[in-house]
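Long-time lurker, first post. I've been practising inverse folding by hand and with some scripts of my own, and I keep getting stuck on stretches where the structure tokens seem ambiguous. Below is the full token string for one chain I'm working on. Before anyone asks, I'm not after the true native sequence, just a reasonable design that respects the backbone. If someone could post their per-position residues I'd love to compare against what I wrote down in my notebook.
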């Protein structure tokens, strides 16, 4: 069968399942769950996959769901990913009132796109024409939040790393995948748009505890050691470093105070922070986060408080595959001839798709059909066709390009790809941050 006809068939199958795809997108949006807690979302995805005739694996990195559709003959495996978790955004109209979770980052659209592509591939009859397999993978915990909760999961042996894809790599869930694709909702982009990303920042996480000595805040403050003052000085130390950050490194350091004291009439003796140190390269991350440690410690030293800093593995910078980006653009134009194509270049946020990109070819395009800023209560979908159906069709048609004609396209991409790290090197690098190296 001609490749162009196969593409028509997958797009028609996606259109035929539009109502079902729209329903699960809305259902996930209505019941948002934070990372490593995506129990309802995982169950919905698994059931959807079963209804397509797939046999999903569940419980990967706690809540991951993975299903394989086998092609007509052996060949490479290409994966479409969708992230299961929500972000914390209590002010969102769709937020869970108990947890503050909301899909203000559009991960419900990612999952819907992944499942729509699954509809196209599995319900169109094209698999017999492909050389290789397609994996549809609902992945947990991309948002790197609730660090103390995740540390407890590590300490109890339920996790090894703190982000979903990092944990999946460690568990071996990517060992049988050769290349991967995932979309992300764009901000303030209501019309049909595909912004092709090239790279992103990575980061390390940190928890900081300042231990002082309590005393009566009014009667005997001289008897105390004010841990909140230590934290304020540490944060000012970071601010004093900012003018020295090189623009080409795209450094971002952003802290929050998670505990500022206990009682207003007592000198605070236990103050805690969480922060990220982001940059464009691992070299820049490593150089910067050690300077941040020095600034934080100086705050404690200034008032005589003890400073306890724990550096934690975060996410690696993203590196997108050029040829796969080209295929995404070409197929997006087939899906919608009026789509606007933009060059997203480098973005200063982070994604654990960066971890995967160190091991295999990946892409991470930004998709329009949404308005408002990400991670804010204003973010919302305005055009389902642009936000979900367009990228789903582009991915499904990309899969045909990759695996048609004895998978010549996929094999060419893999032959040219040089992994930035082996899996063993990747794990060793992430583990090194647990000891603050």
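-- Answer (accepted) --
I ran through it position by position. Result:
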């Amino acid at each position: 069968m001609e490749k162009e006809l196969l593409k028509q068939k997958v797009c028609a199958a996606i259109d035929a399942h539009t109502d079902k795809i729209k329903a699960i997108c809305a259902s996930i949006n209505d019941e948002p769950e934070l990372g490593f807690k995506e129990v309802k979302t995982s169950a919905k995805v698994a059931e959807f996959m079963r209804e397509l005739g797939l046999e999903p694996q569940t419980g990967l990195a706690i809540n991951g769901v993975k299903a394989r559709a086998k092609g007509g003959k052996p060949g490479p495996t290409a994966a479409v990913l969708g992230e299961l978790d929500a972000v914390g955004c209590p002010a969102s109209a769709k937020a869970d009132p108990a947890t503050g979770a909301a899909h203000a980052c559009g991960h419900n659209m990612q999952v819907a796109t992944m499942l729509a592509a699954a509809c196209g591939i599995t319900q169109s009859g094209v698999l017999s024409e492909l050389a290789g397999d397609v994996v549809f993978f609902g992945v947990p915990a991309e948002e790197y939040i609730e660090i103390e909760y995740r540390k407890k999961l590590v300490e109890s042996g339920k996790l090894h790393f703190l982000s979903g894809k990092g944990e999946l790599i460690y568990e071996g869930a990517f060992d049988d995948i050769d290349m991967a694709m995932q979309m992300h909702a764009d901000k303030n982009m209501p019309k049909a748009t595909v912004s092709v990303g090239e790279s992103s920042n990575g980061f390390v996480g940190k928890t900081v505890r300042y231990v002082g000595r309590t005393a009566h805040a009014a009667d005997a403050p001289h008897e105390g050691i004010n841990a909140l003052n230590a934290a304020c000085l540490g944060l000012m130390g970071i601010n004093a470093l900012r003018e020295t950050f090189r623009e080409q490194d795209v450094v971002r350091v952003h802290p929050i105070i998670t505990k500022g004291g206990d009682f207003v009439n007592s000198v605070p003796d236990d103050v805690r922070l969480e922060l990220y140190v982001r940059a464009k390269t691992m070299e820049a991350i490593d150089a910067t986060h050690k300077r941040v440690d020095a600034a934080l410690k100086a705050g404690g030293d200034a008032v005589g408080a003890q400073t306890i800093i724990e550096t934690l593995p975060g996410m690696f910078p993203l590196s997108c595959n050029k040829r796969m980006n080209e295929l995404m653009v070409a197929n997006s134009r087939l899906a919608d001839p009026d789509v606007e194509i933009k060059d997203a270049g480098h973005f200063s946020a982070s994604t654990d798709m960066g971890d995967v990109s160190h091991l295999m070819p990946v892409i991470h395009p930004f998709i329009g059909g949404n308005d408002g800023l990400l991670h804010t209560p204003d973010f919302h979908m305005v055009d389902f066709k642009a936000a979900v159906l367009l990228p789903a069709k582009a991915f499904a048609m990309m899969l045909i390009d990759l695996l048609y004609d004895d998978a010549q396209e996929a094999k060419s991409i893999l032959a040219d790809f040089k992994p930035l790290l082996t899996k063993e090197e990747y794990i060793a690098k992430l583990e090194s941050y647990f000891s603050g190296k």
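A couple of notes from the structure itself: The longest helix spans residues 384-416. The first strand starts at residue 57 and ends at 60. Happy to go over any region you disagree with.
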